Amino acid sequence: MKPVLIAGISIVNLALISYTTALIIQTRKKLLTRYVLIFLVTGVIFDITSTICMIIASGKSITLHGIIGYSALAGMLVETIFTYTQKKKYGLNSTISTRLKLWSAIAYFYWVLAYITGAIIVMLK
């Protein structure tokens, strides 16, 4: 396995940890905290980095899994933007809106689906 692919796999695992941590904090506290924002942004940075590593390793930018992964990344990026929009409008420690809770759950579970399909593809090789 190429070292850049191993790096991408390791980094995407860090993205999973960051996104999961953000969602757990958000769900338990029901508040928009500084930690939710930090873990979301960290997750997006790890996600972008791992996506770049995997494109380099595969030599292809467009594959079925790539399209799923890009759309999942876009969903989490939109999630982060929505969260910052709520922070700007209502401030830190504001109650998470019902709409944001729903979007967060949908974006996260879609991202996890993309993560699992990627793991299955790697295991089948």
Describe the structure.
- With 125 residues, this protein is mainly alpha-helical.
- The chain has one domain.
- Helices cover 85% and strands 3% of the residues.
- It has 4 helices and 2 strands, in the order H-E-H-H-E-H.
- It has helices spanning 3-29, 34-58, 64-90, 98-124, and strands spanning 31-32, 94-95.
- The chain has a two-stranded antiparallel sheet.
- Helix 1 runs antiparallel to helix 2.
- It is elongated.
- The chain starts with a helix and ends with a helix.
- The model has no long low-confidence stretch (mean pLDDT 94).
How is this fold's topology laid out?
Blueprint: H1 3-29, E1 31-32, H2 34-58, H3 64-90, E2 94-95, H4 98-124
Antiparallel strand pairs: 1-2
Main attributes?
125 residues; 2 strands; mainly alpha; two-stranded antiparallel ribbon; 85% helix; 4 helices; 3% strand
Brief description of this entry?
The chain is mainly α. The protein contains 4 helices and 2 strands, in the order αβααβα.
**What overall geometry do the principal axes of the alpha carbons give?**
elongated
Structure class: mainly alpha
Put simply, the count of helices is 4
Segments where pLDDT lies below 50 for 5+ residues?
Answer: none
Helical content, roughly?
over 70%
Overall number of strands:
2
Q: What is the arithmetic mean of pLDDT?
A: 94
Strand content: under 5%
N/C terminus separation: 10 Å
Q: What's the order of the H and E elements?
A: HEHHEH
- Read across the widest sheet, the strand sequence of neighbours is 1-2
Compute the gyration radius: what is it?
Answer: 15 Å
The largest β sheet comes out as: 2 strands, antiparallel
